[in-house]
Specification:
7 helices, 222 residues, 2 domains
Length: 222
Amino acid sequence: MNVSSQDKETRRQLRERGRKRIFKMGIIQLGFGLISFVVGILSLVFGVPTGSFPFVLGVGLWVGVLVLLAGLFGFQAGRQTDTVNGEPSGVDKCYVICHYVFSLISALISPMMPVFGGLGIHYCLNPGSVITVGGRSQPRRNVVIYCDPNHDANLALSGVTLAIGIIIFFISIPFTTYFCCYAKAYGFKSRRDQEREMMQMRQEISILQKQVADNDNQSQRC
């Protein structure tokens, strides 16, 4: 087995381990994404009648959609197999990239859940709280925040939103590292690898040019 075949087999084994890992990651993300989605819908159902921030946002719904998409792409990536040539397909690579993108977005957006969940708890425990809204285009005014008429439901859902948001944030961060760990196994190359290949190509071209020049000199002598 030559060096190229050994490298191909090493990447194949790494890819198979990676598929098992991303499949499990996808299942976890689908589970928490579904929970967040349902909590977000319930938050809107019970929060909209209050007409107050942050109960009318349903932030868990939007984060849940992102996490569900990340989980779906991860689940599909874990179910892929190599082509007849022993290489990952274009669809396989697309699933891996999409999983990385949506996992990264989830990690960036999910902190909104514990922030708004914590605010919801605060406003439910301190009814009649006053906040100041407005800015350059609108006059500043005081707004009273109410947790009623679904006080207990909004309080409970705010607590669940806070907890789920923290969990999603801490699972999304390591999940984004999958692409960094297994990119080479899928044929993605770093800038350093690309520069190394370019340097090798230049060296090979230089050698070929030298050989051609030597052959021309020998031909002229003859």
